[in-house]
Amino acid sequence: MPSPLESITVEPAGEDRAGATASFPYDTALVERFRAAFPRARWRDDRRAWFVPGSTAERRLDRWLQRELSGVLAHADARGRDAFAFDPIVSDYLVPAEDLMVRTPYSRTVVAELRAVLWAWWDGEERLWRIPYRSLEELRRRWPAIEEAARRAEPVERKRRRDELKGSAEHHALRAKSRERQRHRYPVLADQLPPGDRPLMSHAGALVFTEVTGELVDEESLHQHYLWSAGATGDFVWASWRRPGHDELVRTWPARQPASGAELARGWWQPTIEELRDARRKARSLERAQATRRQRQMQGRQEEKPV
Which residues lie below 8 Å from residue 161, measured CB to CB, with a gap of 6+? Predict the structure, then answer.
């Protein structure tokens, strides 16, 4: 199975300049060493990788990454492996092997915690997280939150909480919020309509507005589901929306400054580069999940066909 540290590809034909790209888990010290070794390297946000120009870039990148792998990182892995053998993390969700393999029920908290662990990466083939031993101490620090969130995400535990919520005011509020989200509508000021030709940021995340219906928004919906509208003056109308795709978000030009108070009050604004990166990550994850689901459905239909 290929390691994310060795993801080097030649830039495809059609680029203006020859070169190669390198991707590796983010680490401040490693990036500094990389920039010192390749001062002409530039970050390519559309590829989530560093682009190094030059016809010999691939060969130079390969040599540099091999030095990193065989040096500092290998030593750190050895120390982490010894530390784990002396004081292991004992859990149903963790299996030690060549690296530390973590498999849990899906939980946003688990994903957020593991994303924050240096060098951790998602193995899509095995459907689990892999954490090198060099990241043991960071994983150990976050493990109580990871394990607690994983146990709460177990199907039995989720069903128990749903049963407890049934009939409560919180349950009705959650169902009302879900029904509102499924309508794919969003309030916008009648005198400050958003452009409908590009992704924008909103209090509901990145959206592309597809149509302004002109229907006035009732006060009950505003007060119940869109509390941010309290800071705006004027009439709100409903606008339909869809989620932008990853390619659309890559082509979106970021704002230089964060949204102002007036922009937040109207409900939409031009996204910053940080907001775009987060939206791109979510869109890429969603598109991969949808592709995997379609592939499994296709395989299931093929297996059902009589021989």
Answer: 152
pLDDT, tens digit (0-9, with 9 covering 90-100), for 244-265: 999 999 889 889 899 998 899 9
Collapsed DSSP state (helix, strand, coil) of residue 109: helix
Token pair 């030009």: residue: 253
- How far is Cα 216 from Cα 235, in angstroms, rounded to an integer? 7
Those residues whose C-beta lies under 8 Å from the C-beta of residue 283, and which sit 6 or more positions away, are 206, 243, 244, 245, 246, 249
- Residue in 105, 99, 141, 89 with CA at minimum distance from that of residue 120: 99
Strand 94-96, strand 100-102: pairing = antiparallel
Phi, psi of 132 (to 5 degrees): -65, 155
Percentage of residues in the chain having pLDDT higher than 90: 38
Describe the crossing of helices 28-37 and 57-68 by its angle, rounded to 10 degrees.
Answer: 140
Residue 80: the pLDDT is 92
Mean of per-residue pLDDT scores for the chain: 84
Express each pLDDT in 275-307 by its tens digit: 998 899 889 888 887 888 888 888 777 776 665
Residue 75 tokens, joined: 């030593």
Rounded to 10 degrees, the C-alpha dihedral 89/92/93/94 comes to: 40
Which runs of E-coded beta strand occur in the chain? 7-10, 19-23, 42-44, 49-53, 94-96, 100-102, 121-123, 128-131, 185-189, 200-202, 205-216, 236-242, 268-269
CA angle 86, 69, 85 (to 5 degrees): 10
Q: What is the pLDDT of residue 7?
A: 40
Nearest Cα neighbor of 283 from 50, 275, 188 is 275
